[in-house]
Amino acid sequence: MTDAAAAKAKRNIIFLVLVASLGYFVDIYDLLTFSIVRKASLLDIGVKPADVLSQGIHIINWQMFGLLLGGILWGVIGDKLGRIKVLFGSILLYSIANFANGLVHDVSTYTIIRFIAGIGLAGELGAGITLVTETMSKEKRGYGTMIVSAIGLFGAAAAVMVAKYGWRDAYFVGGGLGIVLLLLRIGTFESGMFKNIEQATHVSKGNFFILFTNWKRFGKYLACILIGAPLWYVVGVLVTLSPEFGKALGAKDALNAGDGILYSYIGISVGGIFAGLLSQATKSRKLTMCIFLILSAISAAVYLNAKGITSQQFVWICFFMGCAVGYWTIFITIAAEQFGTNIRSTVATTVPNFVRGSLIIINWGFTALLVHYDMITSGYIMMAILTVIALFSLSQLKETFSKDLDYVEIS
């Protein structure tokens, strides 16, 4: 390769990582907007204060269900038609949905549009991580996903700041950011590994059911999903329901979920940098995941034991919890590295969205625990269950650091 060609390839990779990072930024902004404006938006459209919690969980569940369906849809499209098509199609759908969310005036319409937005949001991160892992060298791709995490997760901070100007404005800005990103993506290029198999008729591409035709493959896929569940419990329950947890803890001030999400996601961004650096330094994704899973359990215990918590203590604890669950992109990278090129986009897209969608089951389990225990005890039990399951699942996966990814799965 000539010096000019090498320089061009390097610039292409830098541009790809930047675009993937900005895509994750917009993804997180739009995904968390409802959690941030949940209370204000529901009260504004006429929901009674006593029904805000139940209606909020109902809408979140539908948004997560959309992520589940969208994960499969975009994952299959990514393996059959290419990663780039997913990046364009998904962002267009959720940008339009977010504009529409800024116009809602009733719960039913709100729910339907958040479901559609969930479908659109499902394709963003998985396709971006797949492109980065397939384009960068096997020794350095961990740095690429680390950058995606570090830049992308600040989308939560942007969402919190914009939401202070009004919940409808927050949705309008989210839609606008998506359209701007869509224009930026015109210069992106397709994965070379995908191009190598694009015309191969003998290779089964994007066959979601191939993950269930072999017990070993299915077990590996399930383990990839379960190792990420504690993170979404921390964000989707412990932080999102912080006003309710604050009352149970006897908080001296009313805890604000928006502030909690802001600081937890700043923490996730910081934690993502350390997770990326640690995995590169130790040359082990599994060791990094193990350390962070243990830290996340400790951080949740600190939160649930914070009797008489103040608003200032709350945001710092949220930052600590965020740092401890900063393994999000490492966990998706592990999933992408476990499978062949012909099914990699499907896995990398469905796994994080199945984890996000697992919030439906987690909410159900947490609600069931509340029938028998108080908020704090239920919080401890659910975190303990999810952490034990995640650690066991991690033990069933092989180390993938520096693994050659240029291969296909046999049906």
Layout: helices, strands, pairs:
Blueprint: H1 3-44, H2 52-80, H3 83-101, H4 107-121, H5 124-135, H6 141-152, H7 155-163, H8 167-184, H9 192-198, H10 215-226, H11 229-239, H12 242-249, H13 257-282, H14 285-304, H15 311-324, H16 328-338, H17 341-372, H18 375-395
Helix pairs in contact: 1-2, 1-4, 1-5, 1-6, 1-7, 1-8, 1-13, 2-3, 2-4, 2-17, 3-4, 3-5, 3-8, 5-6, 5-16, 5-17, 6-13, 6-16, 7-8, 7-13, 10-16, 10-17, 10-18, 11-14, 11-17, 11-18, 13-14, 13-15, 14-15, 14-18, 16-17, 17-18
What does this structure look like?
77% of the residues lie in helices and 0% in strands. The chain has helices at 3-44, 52-80, 83-101, 107-121, 124-135, 141-152, 155-163, 167-184, 192-198, 215-226, 229-239, 242-249, 257-282, 285-304, 311-324, 328-338, 341-372, 375-395. Helix 1 (3-44) packs antiparallel against helix 5 (124-135) and helix 2 runs antiparallel to helix 17. The protein is globular and about 65 Å long. The mean pLDDT is 84.
Strand share of the residues?
under 5%
- CATH top level is Mainly Alpha
Low-confidence stretches: none
| CATH superfamily placement | MFS general substrate transporter like domains
**How far is the N terminus from the C terminus?**
36 Å
Q: What is CATH's topology name?
A: Growth Hormone, Chain: A
Which geometry do the CA atoms define?
Answer: globular
Helix-strand string: HHHHHHHHHHHHHHHHHH
Biggest sheet character = none
